[in-house]
Amino acid sequence: MVMPDAGAPPEPVVRDVPEPGPGQAVVRIRASSLNYHDVVNLAGLIRGPWPRVPLSDGAGEVVAIGEGVRRLAVGDRVTAAFHPTWLQGPPTPAAKRSVLGDTCDGCLQQHLLVDAAALVRTPDHLTDAEAATIPCAGVTAWSAVRIAEPKPGDVVVAQGTGGVSLWALQIAKAHGCVVVLTSSSDDKLEVGRALGADHVVNRSRTPEWHDVVREVSGGKGADLVVDVGGPGSLGRSVLATRMGGTVAIVGGLGGYTTPAEIPVSVAMTQNIRLIGVTVGSVVDHTDLCRAVTAAGIRPHVSHTFGWDDLAAGVALMEAHGHVGKIAIEVP
Ligand SMILES: NC(=O)c1ccc[n+]([C@@H]2O[C@H](COP(=O)([O-])OP(=O)(O)OC[C@H]3O[C@@H](n4cnc5c(N)ncnc54)[C@H](OP(=O)(O)O)[C@@H]3O)[C@@H](O)[C@H]2O)c1
Questions:
Q1: For the chain, which ranges sit under pLDDT 50?
Q2: Is 279 near ligand 1, meaning CB less than 6 Å away?
Q3: Quick one: which H or E segment has residue 276?
Q4: If you take atom 44 of ligand 1, which residue's CA is the nearest one?
Q5: Does the pTM exceed 0.85?
Q6: Closest approach atom of ligand 1 to CA 321
Q7: Whose CA is nearest to atom 18 of ligand 1?
């Protein structure tokens, strides 16, 4: 992606600590994490009110609650939902209208004022930096895997070793699935293996990675491919999928505005379901946290930056230098 020159970063702004109104809570943010979405947002490519505090993901503890908040107490460790207004059920325009860091202030601040209904308790075994990878990448991967109703032994393909894909790998393993992981790098694939990938494919050396998926699935094809590449990968994802299987369309790393080509006759005759996924609801977020606790999942964070070094984190993400997630510490 070609980023506009944003010039020098703005000076930090000092504000009063907010007071929660009825139904609201204030969270002392301790950590955030970067998503590709934030790179696009920080480039000024997402509309919304300006100026605003960026970053969708945040983890910390509740420091104040407003009238009528019963579900949470001061001191609870929480993460905030990506879509604070999508509480449950299928996506609707109204549910998805709000995104932290896009339509309202996000998590690159010490005190986040948010509806208490959008907060989910942090799994006890996670650090705040690990927990801060849940709201966008974790919940998206959860939705993408769950949409295929996975059963033990199902074959799931995760593309690349970014945040969503390594979360998908860990969630699919927790469901007893066989995971095929692709990457541009052997070193990154080793990290994926350590996280449980059963088969790894270097897609730079083996661009026909869909053939490998067919081979390891006994010729049948994958039950689910979590596609993050879009143009350049979606066609192969269709070729990698079994009859009646699912391709979850999650990302557009190969280009957001470039159309993707798919083999239409294969998609049709193989009855393949292509379905778009956008993060998930607070209930999905809560279900993921339960699964993370039950399975003892620890998301992979390869790099951590201070909040005053955000540009370095963004540059690393643009260069695909990370594996899994990049955490941002909020002092
Ligand atoms: N739909 C949603 O709700 C949602 C939510 C979150 C993210 N997303 C989208 O999902 C995508 C991934 O997000 P992320 O935050 O996980 O990104 P990320 O952490 O930056 O992941 C990038 C990694 O993906 C791999 N990759 C790069 N280009 C690729 C391509 N053309 N085809 C396949 N793999 C490629 C690379 O890994 P290797 O070097 O290992 O190959 C790269 O390091 C982005 O497009 C993002 O906008 C969508």
A1: 1-6
A2: yes
A3: strand 273-276
A4: 251
A5: yes
A6: 43
A7: 162
